[in-house]
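Exam revision sheet. Question 4 asks you to relate a sequence to its structure. Input first:
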Amino acid sequence: MLTRLETSRSGILASPGIARRETALTIGGLATSRLATAGEVKLPKVSFIVRNWNYGRYVGRTIDSIQAQDYPNFEVVIVDNASTDDSREVIERHVGDDPRFRVIHSDINLGPLGGALLGLEHATGDFVAFVDSDDTLLSNFASTHIQVHLASRLNVAFTSSTAIETGPDGAMLNGHRARTQMRREEIATGLRAAEIVPRLPSIDDNAFAVLSRHTRLIQPLSAEWPWSPGTANMYRRFILDMLAPACRAADLPKLSADGHYNRLGHLLGGSAVIDLPLSTYRIHGSNFAASVPSLAFLGSDAGPATRFRVLRMREIMRVFVANAADFSARIGEKRYWAALGVLFEQGGLRSGQDLAEWKRDQFLDEQVRHLAATFGASRTARKLAEFLPKPLLRSSLDALHGSNWPAHARLELHIGAARQWHAQLKRFVRKRRARLSALLSPTGQP
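Answer key, structure tokens:
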């Protein structure tokens, strides 16, 4: 793969207006210029990484929306994935001589995740947003995300805002993109008090109050997908570096940045959902993730990304297992194993096709060997038996032990299977009781 760096300049425009806005950052109503040594407390840099492939008809509006941000400290890396339309000319025309932009042309189509990784090689920001070139940002996108990161009750791996659904011409189809409703996963609502957190000048008291009411922190072990797609997410850069994918080059074009980083980032550091529209999601029939408007009771549509669900979970698990020693030390071994169970659940453990995908090219055998080397064979067998189907786990343990299965490994396999059956029974009983209670008390009263 060959790349060509079109524009090497980066950084923010050094205009007097931007300088004044930066110094207006406040804490407790006082300007940081009065509280800290010059340059010690300043706004973090945001890197927008735009991935484009043959979206010349849309990418110009995407660039314009980034240039219109009211947040002063950002850079933009545009990765053109070997477009064959007029994308190159459109990008050049809209970027112009803006020094905050650099453009990279790839000789091959790397796909959404591959383009994101190439962009990351050239990004220098503290926070990163991967922008799809058929979407646009509202002017307060970056400032709102950064304000939540600076004022959140808990420091989280990434934030995800609401996206307005539009058609090809920008006409609104829905005021937001429907997503999984948050239930027990929601653990806190609101930001820290406005008077004690760093405040951006573009977020006044009224805007901060609205933002606080509509920000929710989600538990790290959520098995749902409460986030908006692609463009609507902003990540801490160091989290992205920790979670770099290790998949084969042939699989890279089948994967997406949010599909990879949201699950992993959330399992490690949690996330925050901002229930305010800060970007648009343009629906034009050929979207990678979702190509029709969302409806509350319809479920997800069959965009190309949905065909690679198990592959995506495999590659997420490859990273999670390869870093087992580090991650389990950071989040605790109990939470690590619970997170591993969530990944298997999301990847599917019921259909023969899903199970075959887990076993393809000895993938699961490789993961079991690595886990056994980290936690010990006995403990690995016991923990995996709590959520893996017995035949699937047995085949991997055969690969691990050959014909010399230790007696304790056999025992753990059977005990773990019994625990799995008992847990399933308890879930079934709880659901039946809840359903019966709802039938007997339709108003929710006892």
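Marking note for examiners. The chain has two domains: 3-301, 311-439.
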